[in-house]
């Protein structure tokens, strides 16, 4: 692997997060409610935040609403102290993560770092690990799969479609990490580069679409009663989960350098779903 730009010498060791280390976003920057997003890690040239589902990372033709790039830069220009201390001249997202996905979002702090990190991402020098829930497969199904279908944006809908004629190359590796007698499975997807919706589209190609992903034919979330038949509390017929059960759990900005590996546990409501399904502790 080549060493380019500001990574030529030993990079600054990132500061790991704690619950008090967060960046606040008053409304309407990221919606109509205030948000405080935990800082997962920070180095001299980049910042990693925990992105919640429902929030965009950057402006994209498929998305509407505010995004983190714009919100961070608006507060930087307003001299917000918790951003001024980061010694940034601008914030730019290193990769696009669609709003429906939670997890690690990385932002460069200046133009040189942004160009370098985006180049690394585009060259496949980073590593990404996603986690998602899917319906259980028939007994004997393979636990390790891969998809290499070229992907092309649909000409009308905000989604990707497989196209060997016009699609761009894409590769995703999948591994089933847990199964539940309640009819669900936990998968991880690994990529070294990903296009918009790549994990979602490739999971659908392999017939393991993500729970809650109506755009790609994913199953609906089970009800509380389906997960706990014996419980008689009110609300048991409501869905046990809302949204897309897909999370970006780990990013290696520089493989082989532990200090540049950023992890993020699933959000509380997804952890609760995994426990109820028998897929997590």
Could you provide a short overview of the structure?
The protein has 281 residues and is α+β, with helices and mostly antiparallel strands.
Instruction: Based on the coordinates given, report the CATH architecture of the largest domain.
Output: 2-Layer Sandwich
Q: Biggest sheet: strands, sense, closure?
A: 12 strands, mixed
Q: Report mean pLDDT, rounded to a whole number.
A: 91
Radius of gyration: 19 Å
Structural class: alpha+beta
CATH topology of the largest domain: Pseudouridine synthase
The total strand number stands at 14
- Estimated helix fraction: 10-25%
Assembly type: single chain
What is the top-level CATH class of the largest domain?
A: Alpha Beta
Query: Secondary-structure element sequence?
Result: EEEEHHEEHEEEEEEHHEEH
Low-confidence parts: 1-19
Number of domains: 2
- Corresponding CATH superfamily of the largest domain: Pseudouridine synthase
Could you explain the architecture of this structure?
- By secondary structure, the chain is α+β, with helices and mostly antiparallel strands.
- The protein is 17% helix and 27% strand.
- It has 2 domains: 5-125, Alpha-Beta Plaits (2-Layer Sandwich), CATH 3.30.70; 129-245 and 273-277, 2-Layer Sandwich (Pseudouridine synthase).
- Strands 1, 2, 3, 4, 5, 6, 7, 8, 11, 12, 13 and 14 form a 12-stranded mixed beta sheet that branches. A two-stranded antiparallel sheet has the order 9-10.
